[in-house]
Design brief:
Blueprint (H helix, E strand, L loop, with lengths): L1 H5 L2 E4 L12 E7 L5 E8 L5 H14 L7 E4 L3 H10 L4 E4 L1 H11 L1 H6 L3 H9 L5 H14 L6 H8 L1 H4 L16 H13 L6 H28 L10 H9 L2 H13 L4 E8 L2 E7 L7 E6 L4 E4 L3 H5 L4 H9 L34 H19 L3 H25 L15 H5 L2 E5 L15 H18 L6 H8 L8 E7 L10 E8 L15 H5 L27
Parallel strand pairs: 1-4, 4-5
Antiparallel strand pairs: 1-2, 2-3, 6-7, 7-8, 8-9, 10-11, 11-12
Helix pairs in contact: 2-3, 6-7, 12-13
Length: about 550
């Protein structure tokens, strides 16, 4: 639901020192209707290569029913750029301003030390929103002034100007984001919340805590926006009243600021063609002029600054033209639903291209729908009882339908390479249990309390030893089963008597070797091969899944 409503703009960056495996932690973030940071998902990557990022984006795209973001912000990473171009071909890739300034300070250190004004002039050119020709002119003047025409880093940066220059960023919606500052802020939160020695399960728990904290912040902001209204600086003004009733408190503050700024600009008519009037808005001396086109007939308006197209709020230039033409009510077509108090209400996924969905994508979308229904019914025990009965009926109908179709093999489950078709027909499962090799015994340091307790235990053992028969201890050791390496387990399973049971019932099981030899239990699902590493000597794992846990011995060292 969060990504369906607010997944139009993404911020993506990786961070380290969050887990004991030293794997890059990659959260995907956005902004909600209160301009708060929101988590869409996260992943642990093996490395920061193009293949790893492609795997991550494809997995994320499948989980989000194929919806691609409009804009994505990243740092200046070539591997990320290649992955975005391949997985999100229609998404606008933007580079973070903050990372560009950091790279400028690193590559142009000699210029900054000799010219303290360089960074200020550099930022001014980056944030220019004038026409492209004016930006090109100011950029060349900057290079000539500071003798950077032949600088290789500047030439590379100029080749990527469409990804960072403000004059190019107003083409598509970006939810008022200009950098990956949200990712940097959340990375700091993750580093404080996470510990460097966290295992995967502990990391997931801490991640859920962070996500729950962000959801609580959103619920608090929703409550304040819905239960109270901001006081407009001009009471009983229809446009401000409409904005206060529609927008959240945070967005209304931005809108009201733009409404105040309209009184600082001058307006004059340039041309009139039928019902379309073109105005020239002259701002303060340090700001740029703008051209506004207004149509009386259908109440449409557009401005050359394109703030509404990029941020979803009308600019001061358009509001000034509305005021001159005595339009005192905010037109509904310019109230972006994303910024309203009830942005999530009545929202559903766009299923126009559902016939092109894969089975996995459709299953993920239906799963989210089912979860939403359960959450709606969680307020009443009666609703939950009725819902559970309905789910049980659907389960029985699904079993009947599947039994009529005959046995089918799901697309998402890949058969093990060492399982023959005859074994599958006879319901036989055969796999090798990996050998468990003990490493060196390393004793940890004990404190005073543990040493004291050990001494007491030893004295008690000596007293009881006198009452036992000689050789009893040796007999116990002899009866203890000894691990003899990998064993072969073969057996068959039958479906349980319950229709809802999915656990296998083994019959006619045979263990080759000692009957007391321990074996690892069968793990049903697509991860059996990855965990047990069966017959994968000839296969090459994907870079993002190239983790070999089975090659580690008990001492934590690789063989």
């Amino acid at each position: 639901m969060d990504y369906a409503c607010f997944g139009d703009a993404l911020s993506f960056d990786t961070t380290f020192q969050t887990n004991k495996f030293e794997m890059p932690f990659a959260p995907l973030l956005g902004t909600n209707h209160h301009k708060q940071t929101i988590l869409f998902g996260a992943a642990l990557l093996f490395d920061e290569t193009t293949d790893s990022f492609i795997w991550l984006f494809n997995t994320f795209l499948t989980a989000m029913s194929g919806k691609r973001p409009v804009t994505i912000f990243t740092d200046q990473c070539a591997a990320m750029a290649k992955a975005i171009d391949k997985v999100f071909p229609g998404t606008k890739h933007r580079l973070c301003f903050w990372h560009i300034y950091q790279n400028a300070a690193k590559h142009l250190r000699h210029v900054i030390s000799n010219h303290p004004r360089f960074l200020a002039d550099f930022k001014r050119v980056v944030y220019l929103e004038n026409p492209v020709a004016f930006f090109e002119q100011k950029w060349q003047e900057l290079l000539i002034t500071y003798d950077l025409v032949e600088n290789s880093w500047i030439q590379t940066l100029y080749g990527l100007r469409e990804k960072w220059a403000a004059v190019y960023r107003n083409d598509l919606f970006s939810a008022d984001m200009t950098s990956t500052q949200r990712s940097e802020g959340m990375n700091n939160v993750f580093k404080k919340q996470f510990r460097k020695k966290l295992c995967v399960s502990e990391l997931l728990v801490e991640y859920e805590k962070c996500a729950a904290s962000l959801r609580e912040n959103e619920l608090d902001a929703d409550f304040k926006s819905r239960k109270s209204k901001p006081v407009p600086f001009v009471r009983n003004l229809p446009m401000l009243k409409t904005a206060a009733e529609s927008y959240t408190r945070r967005i209304y503050t931005d809108f009201e600021e733009e409404f105040k700024q309209q009184h600082l600009v001058k307006c004059e008519i340039i041309s009139t063609v039928g019902t379309v009037i073109t105005y020239k808005i002259m701002a303060m001396p340090f700001e740029d002029d703008a051209l506004v086109t207004f149509n009386h007939e259908n109440m449409t308006i557009s401005c050359s600054c394109r703030k509404y197209e990029s941020k979803g709020l009308l600019c001061k230039h358009a509001l000034r033209v509305f005021n001159i033409n005595e339009v005192f009510t905010l037109p509904s077509q310019y109230i972006l639903h994303r910024w309203t108090k009830y942005a999530k209400r009545g929202y559903s996924w766009n299923n126009q291209d559902s016939h092109q969905e894969t089975l996995q994508t459709r299953a993920a979308r239906i799963s989210r729908k089912a979860t939403a229904v359960v959450l709606k019914c969680s307020v009443s025990e009666e609703l939950l009882v009725e819902l559970e009965k309905a789910i049980d009926m659907l389960d029985l109908e699904a079993d009947e339908s599947l039994s009529q179709r005959g046995p089918a093999k799901p697309e998402s489950v890949r058969m093990n390479s060492n399982v023959s078709s005859e074994d599958v027909t006879n319901a036989n499962i055969s796999f090798k249990v990996p050998q468990a090799i003990k490493g060196l015994m390393v004793k940890r340091a004990k404190d005073a309390l543990e040493k004291k307790g050990t001494k007491k235990a030893k004295t008690g053992t000596k007293k009881s030893k006198s009452g036992t028969k000689k050789g009893a201890g040796n007999k116990v050791k002899a009866d203890t089963p000894v691990w003899e390496g990998p064993q072969q387990f073969t057996g068959s399973f039958e479906a349980g008597t319950s229709s809802n049971s999915t656990l296998p019932h083994f019959t006619n099981t045979t263990f080759h070797g000692d009957s007391s030899t321990m074996f690892r239990p069968f793990i049903q699902g697509g991860y059996t091969e990855l965990l047990l590493q069966t017959d994968q000597a000839s296969e090459v794992l994907h870079p993002s899944r190239r983790l070999d846990f089975d090659q580690l011995n008990h001492g934590g060292q690789k063989e």
